[in-house]
Amino acid sequence: MNVINPANNLNNYPLIRLRRNRQQAWSRNLISENNLTVNDLILPVFIKEGSNESEEITSMPRVFRHTIDKAVILIDQAYELGVPAVAIFPVIENRLKTADGKESYNEDSLMCRSISEIKDKVPNIGIIADVALDPFTTHGHDGLLIKGKIDNDKTIDILIKQSLAQAKAGCDIIAPSDMMDGRIVCIRNALESEGFKDTQIMSYAAKYASNFYGPFRDAIQSSQKLVGNKKSYQMDPSNSREAIQEAALDISEGADMIMVKPGMPYLDIITKIKSKFNIPIFAYQVSGEYSMMRAASENGWLDFSEIMEESLISFKRAGADGILTYSAIEMAIKLNNS
Ligand code: PBG
């Protein structure tokens, strides 16, 4: 007798119709392989000096630079919606920028004051503090520029001080985004010896030298400043094996979680890293990605909330455990109502 085994015969129409499972909403829900929830979202927040002001960022419509008091209101809203964590970025006044970026470890800086104020007012949301020098330097680089070159080891000395100042201010997660070699082990050791053993590290392990950061540099007002480019420390977009090596090193140096950045053009990197390591992996849907989708929808060419939701589920499908996205509040509202 001719036994038909649908499992090993791909030419079996009409026995096999994949559309059967897709006919009804309940069935589509039942078979969905990946789900996006508010637990997956991290909201980046730009903070500036002053009070009671929110200023829209021209290249990132509907994203604002907030004074601390306004940021607290936004972050409280994020918390109420169930967003687990925020990542904060300071907009540093020009007069405080120096070649050595020393404002980065001032314990009374805008960044440190923001952290303690947020911890005080919204104690149960996770605070992720970026570690890198670019908001604080006159040349806009993430590290120290010495004789025209970024000095890896001297930069680490400053990053350690910056990390300790931010940990002391009360941040939960230190997120080094600078891409210096060896900084994770140095920061981890410093945190351990200074009594911050529970402070987590989310390393930007595979961070590419990307043009998608343009609007962010506007947002923190470092774009006019950048001397040259960041290619001597951020990764070449044509490489992926190197990303595995970056991730392996950061994990061995004590990172608690790692990040891939940018997001959508680098989903393959998330998948590759996920297949090799068991550490939580995050993705940063960066400013340029947000602005493209926002601009297209403001022109009526795309539906922002639909396109954003689809883009975020693609991160989950690729293997990300969570996503930093400027749309976190809007998406949290949408997900909570669906
Ligand atoms: C810098 C930093 C950048 C971003 C986060 N941290 C920009 C850069 O490396 O130039 C970009 C985020 C975004 O584009 O949304 N340390």
Structure characterization notes:
This protein is α/β, with parallel strands linked by helices and 338 residues long. The chain has one domain (36-337): Aldolase class I (TIM Barrel), CATH 3.20.20. 38% of the residues lie in helices and 18% in strands. It contains 11 helices and 12 strands. It has helices at 25-31, 68-81, 110-121, 152-169, 183-193, 214-219, 241-252, 267-276, 287-298, 304-318, 328-337, and strands spanning 41-48, 54-57, 60-67, 85-90, 126-131, 144-146, 149-151, 173-176, 200-207, 257-261, 281-284, 322-324. The strands form 2 sheets. It has an 8-stranded parallel β-barrel with strand order 1-4-5-8-9-10-11-12, surrounded by 8 helices. Strands 6-7 form a two-stranded antiparallel ribbon. Strand 2 (54-57) and strand 3 form a beta hairpin. Helix 3 runs parallel beside helix 4 and helix 4 (152-169) packs parallel to helix 5. The chain is globular, with a radius of gyration of 22 Å. The N and C termini lie far apart (50 Å). Ligand PBG binds at residues 130, 132, 134, 142, 177, 213, 216-217, 230, 286-287.
CATH architecture: Alpha-Beta Barrel
State the distance separating the first and last CA atoms.
50 Å
Query: Can you count the helices?
Result: 11
CATH topology: TIM Barrel
Across the major sheet, the strand order is 1-4-5-8-9-10-11-12
Q: Any idea how many domains?
A: 1
Bound molecules: ligand PBG
* Average predicted confidence as pLDDT: 95
Largest sheet: 8 strands, parallel, barrel
Q: Roughly what percent helix?
A: 25-40%
Class per helix and strand makeup = alpha/beta
